[in-house]
Amino acid sequence: MGFIGQIALILIATLFAAAISQRLGMPAVIGQLVAGVILGPGIFDVLQNTHLMQAGSEIGVIILMFIAGIESDLDLLKKYFKPAISVAAIGVLFPMIIFYGYGELMGQGFERSIFWGVIFAATSVSISVEVLREFKKLNTKEGATILGAAVVDDIIAVILLSIFVSSFGVGETQGPNLLVATIFQLLYFLGVVILVKWVAPVILRFAERIPFTARLRLPRYFFVSRWLGWPM
């Protein structure tokens, strides 16, 4: 089956699966995930994980997170950031303890048990966002707490995974130096803070002063909304 055929099959299968899932009172994303499992190598192996398929999946996640970022209330996220950190800490600590113990019980050894704990400590922000958007809970107290916790959870998991790879390596390949990896991660997060806090407002102010947009008095996200086909 060619790439276009696979895309068509994915769209049709996820459409029907999402409708069935919603009829059963569950989020549409659950049906979409089930459709992926059925069509993937887990059961029927109809779809191949090609380079184009991987690229398309990454683009889909980027668009989903972009839409979630536009719809999110930053003031609400800041307001409930402290409880989000508490939830994230529990969400990391419990899986690590449980799956580390399970790994030791199965005789996997220290390194594999730690690796299991780190992997299961990570969450899927995109799935959480999609469920919250569907139930219109993204900009509520609970939604802000869950979203903030999911983001912090993923950051902690990435840091722990970097420490794991730097300390133990992967297979016969030794990971990067722990100090170097930590410095690069700190620089990355610092760059994100600078971009959001200082660079983005300057770009938005510059965009608002463009004669065309100023003359028509268009909203800030008018062009993005029109391009995506959203109602104004």
Question: Can you walk through the features of this model?
Answer:
The model is unreliable at 213-232 (pLDDT under 50). The relative contact order is 0.07. Helices cover 78% and strands 0% of the residues. It contains eleven helices and no strands. The two termini are 39 Å apart. The protein has 232 residues and is mainly alpha-helical. Among the domains are: 73-175, no CATH class; 176-232, no CATH class. It has helices at residues 3-23, 28-39, 51-71, 74-79, 81-105, 109-121, 125-134, 141-168, 178-208, 211-216, 222-228.
The number of strands is 0
Per DSSP, the total helix count is 11
Calculate the terminal CA-CA distance, rounded to whole Å: 39 Å
In percent terms, what proportion of residues is strand?
A: under 5%
- Main sheet makeup: none
Rg, Cα atoms, Å: 21 Å
Taken in chain order, the helices and strands follow as: HHHHHHHHHHH
Mean pLDDT: 81
What general form does the structure show?
globular
Oligomer: single chain
Low-confidence stretches: 213-232
Structural class: mainly alpha
Helix fraction bin: over 70%
